[in-house]
Amino acid sequence: MTDTGPASISPSARPRPFAGAPVDTDVVIIGAGPAGCATAIALADAGFAVTIVEQRRLPRPKTCAGLLSPRAILHLGDLGIDASGLEGAHRVDIIDFVIDDRHRQLEWPDHPDLVDHGVAVPRHSLDLMMVERARSLGVTVLEEHQAVGPIIERGLVVGARIRSSDDTPAGIAAPRTTDPISLDPTATRGEEIRARYSVIADGANSRFGRALGTHRDRTWPMATAVHAAWASPHAISHAVEISFNLFHDDGHRLAGFGWVVPDGRDSIDIGVGLVSTTSGFRSVNTTHLLEDFVRSIASRWEIDPTAPVRPLMSGRVPMGGSVRPISGPTSLVVGDAAGAANPISGSGIDTALVTGTVAGEVLIDALRGDDPTALQRYWRLIDDRNAALYKVGRLLDRFAGRPSVFERVAASVVRSQWAAETVVRMGTDSLRDRRGGRPEQAYRLLRALSRLAPDA
Ligand SMILES: Cc1cc2nc3c(=O)[nH]c(=O)nc-3n(C[C@H](O)[C@H](O)[C@H](O)COP(=O)(O)OP(=O)(O)OC[C@H]3O[C@@H](n4cnc5c(N)ncnc54)[C@H](O)[C@@H]3O)c2cc1C
Description:
Elements: E1 25-30, H1 34-45, E2 50-53, E3 67-68, H2 70-78, E4 90-92, E5 94-99, E6 102-107, E7 118-120, H3 123-136, E8 140-142, E9 145-153, E10 156-164, E11 191-200, H4 207-211, E12 215-216, E13 222-231, E14 239-243, E15 256-262, E16 267-275, H5 286-301, E17 308-318, E18 323-324, E19 331-333, H6 349-368, H7 377-400, H8 403-415, H9 417-427, H10 438-450
Parallel strand pairs: 1-2, 1-11, 2-8, 5-14, 11-19
Antiparallel strand pairs: 3-7, 4-7, 5-6, 9-10, 10-11, 12-18, 13-16, 13-17, 14-15, 15-16
The structure holds flavin-adenine dinucleotide (FAD).
The site of flavin-adenine dinucleotide has 40 residues, from helix 1, strand 9, helix 4, strand 13 and strand 17.
């Protein structure tokens, strides 16, 4: 992969000692989502000065169904946040896979380090709690401030230019998140925050990251998703539905899934997500796809498909480690900005927490030893963790893009307990070690096969 951007984030740029240059904070973080907050909490807990710049007023609208996997729950716990105690948290015990009118109900697979359930949370509740936790540890959170461009000196990122984003709508009512100002790496306007290190946690579009030269490999899979909520008497269910009943106008089954996530009170989140590798991807209108899906499940969930209780929101999820480079001599990229989401499930909260936590650990080493070379370990640590699984996921996405293949894979997930378990374990990063069972054997076989495709 080539680095086409400015030298500022190039791993080959030469770090320099800080030489007593004045700084406002040890680390500036762009974005207060789970990735940015996880990094901030880890650093502040170790006693370092951290400033988060967030363009929205919190809680801000975020396109997300809010389903936390056991791994997300684990990492939140490590950061001092009890997922089950979040306002509006609702326990999820069962995953109900559906194809045509057949169902396969699966309990959340066991794992020695993880809890045996997921949790559905209102996304604003998760984000607020993470920001509050960060603040309680002394992190400065500049809400309604947008980072408009990096400060680059001698080819290195030494902070961010920011300005008040007073044109940002308040609260959580706005249906879409848009960045009101385009970023310019040479921008001179705005105030400055000078920092020893900078963390780019600005989400899927990552304009700050792009201004520093990150790029997404467009040949790799990406997901696009749209969702809203409907009132349902079954909102108290502890089962989420994952349905493979998404169809193209020409009748073929699309690679992706529809979901139903009950909130435990009165409404259910319904969404559809498609992988960019699916046949006919560009010609699919995802809003119409959601409408069709909602109509198809309306009687079972007893909803009025014409009366959503929350506006429709859509977004993209870069997946499978598709963004590079993710580290530079004085900067790191985390979460969706790093394309970190799982390529099998599209889940990105857990991967945001993981990348944020690893970034925090690396930065702590760098700050303690006054050693910027510590940052070079970041991408290696992330790669060691994810590379093999993500490669398998990317290959599966590619093959599943063919309708005949997806038809068979989806049918076997609903037909077979262990196939369903394999997909859940790979999609939620809960494969066990060598002593695992059939899902781990299947994964090891897929991993071996993936080695035959070195460039995938
Ligand atoms: C429809 C949909 C449903 C999903 N459902 C789930 C789910 O159920 N479970 C799951 O695990 N994942 C889900 N995801 C994925 C998940 O939402 C993301 O992967 C996750 O939010 C990534 O976290 P992040 O911190 O990297 O980015 P974000 O949560 O996007 O946070 C980035 C932050 O940066 C701020 N920002 C951006 N630019 C600037 C700037 N220049 N200056 C200052 N601030 C800036 C933004 O305002 C934002 O607050 C879903 C995604 C979609 C699209």
